[in-house]
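INFO  loader      accepted 1 record
INFO  loader      residues=381
INFO  predictor   begin
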Amino acid sequence: MNQEVDLWLGQHELVDFEESGVLPSLSVSKWSFYYNLIKKMANMPFYRSKEAYIDPTATLMGQIVIEEGVRILPYAMITGPAFIGKNTIIGNYSFIRPNSFISRNVVIGNHSYCNETIIAPYSRVTHFCGVSRSILERNCTLSAFVLTASLKANSTAIDPQNRIKKRGALIGKNTYIAPHVSISPSVEIGADCFIGSFLYLTQNVAENQMLRTKKTIETDINTYAFPERIIAKDNLKNKKFYCATLLISEENKYILQRRDSSSAVTNPGMISAFGGRLEGDETPIQCAIRELNEELSLKIDESDLGFLYRTKVLFDGKIIECIFFIIKSIKIKDLCLTEGKKIEHLSPFDCLMSKDITDLCLSAVQTHFESDEKFRKKWVN
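INFO  predictor   done
INFO  writer      dumping tokens
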């Protein structure tokens, strides 16, 4: 954990909530806690743990705390101020809007939306949910397509005395909400409840309640004939591996390869990292060492390689498993190019602006630039 984040949590008495989801017992006090926390997030520090995985396609903007073990999956978007606690998963295409405090060991499913919401530890907001201005206590589950509204249809105030016009749901600990449930603004659901599918909640629910709909199911003889399905040909079963190494020079620039222009070469004339495919029974590390020796006459040991990231791409109908390593403080004058057109020595901004760099190489550059705070500070004041 970062000392600055620890200090901020301690100053605002948030340590117990972030670790175990401790909230006041009265609902009035819980909403008071909510509004105070939203205000405190305005001065939240910026921190991204090196032990967190952030997919290169994810978008992060503003002051965001990302703790150890967090996984932010492809195309997720987070706008700060936002807090993402330890070991939390932010799913594909999810959208975390400002003033969202998501504690540790939480799962946000794909295509879900959280806005000004605080979520206690071990809760799950599964796929295609929309949660706005709400409180989820410890170990809640929102199944697919659960929506919490925060604004009345007639736009009247929810709490006129305090001039509060928008407020979502308060969902008690250990409560499970089944798919396709809509919750009206300011509805409070007690602890240990089960809310069945296809319900529209407009009133508060006491603790330890089960709500469900009862429908009559009609049965009859089936007269429809369905054709037998044809199994599609599996074009993706031949999985291959590609290993590359991102080289950082003593001048804190990226050392990359301008590829040959021959049509026989993958990505002819483009800029990429030095690397290639595994041969025989090679391990990824052995492949990276061999490729650097073949392409740059650079001899290294296993201990010189640092792991950068791993991803998958689809190429020529096959899944290619891509593993990137990194080596720092390379003396560019000691390199001897034996494959490719020339060595490119580029700053991070040169890489971002280049139209010739491959998507895979650019993803590696972005991953490194985002994760290496010391390197980033040398380029961004």
